[in-house]
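All the exercises in this workshop are built on plain-text protein records. An example says more than a description, so a record of this kind follows:
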Amino acid sequence: MNFDHSPIAKDLIARMQKFMQEEVLPAEATYYQQLKGGSDWAQWQQPAIMEELKAKAKAAGLWNLFLPEDGARLANVDYAPLAEITGRSMMSPEVFNCNAPDTGNMEVLVKYGSEEQKQRWLKPLMNGEIRSAFCMTEPDVASSDATNMQATAIVEGDEVVINGRKWWSSGIGHPNCKVLIFMGLSDATADKHRQHSMVLVPLDTPGVKIERMLPVFHTLDEPFGHGEVSFTNVRLPLSAIIGGDDGISGIGRGFEIAQGRLGPGRIHHCMRAIGAAEYALELMCQRSLSRVAFGKPLAKLGGNADIIANARMAIEQARLLTLKAAWMMDTVGVKGAMSEISQIKVIAPNIATQIIDAAMQMHGGAGLSDDFPLAALYAYARVLRLADGPDEVHRGLIAKIELKNQAARANAALATH
């Protein structure tokens, strides 16, 4: 394994760090002031400063860096440190057009979209002109097992008809959200991983209704938000089905497309979580050296030195495992890296929540306020333990792969005797 960054990646890392320090971080206060819109936190609007920052990032060549095919053409192992840099600010991924769920949706369209779909939706997404949402999770079934899905996408003549209810559809509250990717059951008689399809649904299609926006840790996460959405006899042409130019050939490819979508996205999330943990450790160290209690800096009280040391070790371990997963995706593909991807999906959010929690504790009451970014970072990291699959599902997959590999080794050893 070689984790050395390519010359292109090294240049991008330096430029992104400079851009973050000079443009993004100084603009955070303005962004949240504009988002608040005076006294009403429930306004769903795009802060003007975000569009200004996006224009600057695009002009600086710091744009669509996540996308190997039509973006910066970076390997996963080269994009990983860039994602980590953006983990220091909750608003920064959108600045570089590298925010979820748009990144995953763009990857779907690049890999599986028809030319018509690419022109209508991928092009404006890559230009940062519109936003999108992904509608998969459902309120009435355990969505940790996606085969439970009840929403339907049934072909009727030259149309696909969608019915059902989705929730935690992240990004659907954004004023620029124009299109959804909907996953639903198309053929209940097929193999369980060939029953579902993905369909592109313009948000203004008759029958699509945002029922409510769901708060996360008592905030609505504006301007993106997470919506509960109903679909009632939503009719679309077959060309809206993802996975083939004729529409019909995309029927039953939902799980295949989902797996292709989730692999790289999990790398992005994990590296951003590591960036958040790194930032929390930095703030924790600053606080522990500057605050004095009982006649000593906090760094010299109790077990705080151990907490700081353990945080450093945990971050280094998580980063190395994430880089290994990224390297394996680049060399053997998503399928060959499934165990490692699931491993980082468990480890990175867990170490991030632990380190951010420790930083909050060392900041006392201030750590719970908006005077520091720790509460927002904690909420983000904690959400990741459920987003893209709960920890338990990933542990189950890791164990399944491990047991299979161990059994194969044992059988091979017996065969040689």
Remarks:
- The two ends are 33 Å apart (CA to CA).
- Residues 254-290 form the longest helix (37 residues).
